[in-house]
Amino acid sequence: MKKRPLVVVTRRLPDVVETRMRELFDARLNHDDRPMTPDELATAVREADVLVPTVTDRIDAALLAQSGPNFKLIANFGNGVDNIDVQSALDRGITVTNTPGVLTEDTADMTMGLILTVPRRIAEGARVVPDDHEWSGWSPTWMLGRRIWGKRLGIVGMGRIGQAVARRAKAFGLSIHYHNRRRVAAHVEDQLEATYWESLDQMLARMDIVSVNCPHTPATYHLLSARRLKLLKKEAYVVNTARGEVIDENALARMLEAGDLAGAALDVFENEPAVNPKLVKLARQNKVVLLPHLGSATLEGRIDMGEKVIVNIKTYMDGHRPPDRVLPSML
Ligand code: 8YV
What we know:
With 331 residues, the protein is α/β, with parallel strands linked by helices.
């Protein structure tokens, strides 16, 4: 009988996914409600055939140098693979896969929800529960937010998620603008009525709301730098459901604190799972909305991601190329 591969999963997955994994593999599942420690990850790559990491697990060259003779596959539970040194893995004959396409709509829903909410949530004095636990009665000038209908939305990164955000935002009456490494196909631009900006600087200076939807790569690290953030209008909002590393968080915090930006909503952070204490303080001052990386966090989406992980592992173990193999050229 063929030996079942030892598969180490770094975080708890939906029950239906874990049940299937136990049926198919020698599954070692981490049910502690915390990330695995570096020592635990080192033991995993030393002993396992397959590792299933999530976004906060750093799979770098130093860890991969400790991998054992059986370790051949990193089946990432997630679309973004910036947590993995893909080139080092490939140099060691280790295949990397991810879970593309199944979290697009959920992440776009969350992004659109933040685009709609933030200009109203960060209205002056707006509170979920007023401090005095009773409201001073409705007034025409009470907690005034900002209209988004008719405003300009600048999307940084027009891939699957960026385009899904554009489809939603168009339906809400926003004017769609985007900056991307490459211009998208003309028919896509036409469908979305989207305006391409070759210059990110020029786009940022003219937008009312900016949505970050690009992957984190060496080229996009601090793409929204302190210099670029200063190009934004004071009444502009920033929404980030992509990767925290794309924005210079400290620069953003300084602008929010100084009132040089109307507000922001962040679902991702530079040093996850830690959150910049300056942002936490600003959240208490109602100048920023913070979420703990919930963009794709639906039960259906997590199950779809888990099923893609299982297919990638099974395909690889059957001696075939996994459908979601990641190559450095794709990043
Ligand atoms: C996932 C994400 O939840 O898939 C991604 O790239 O950022 C999230 O939507 C996360 O990766 C889970 O590991």
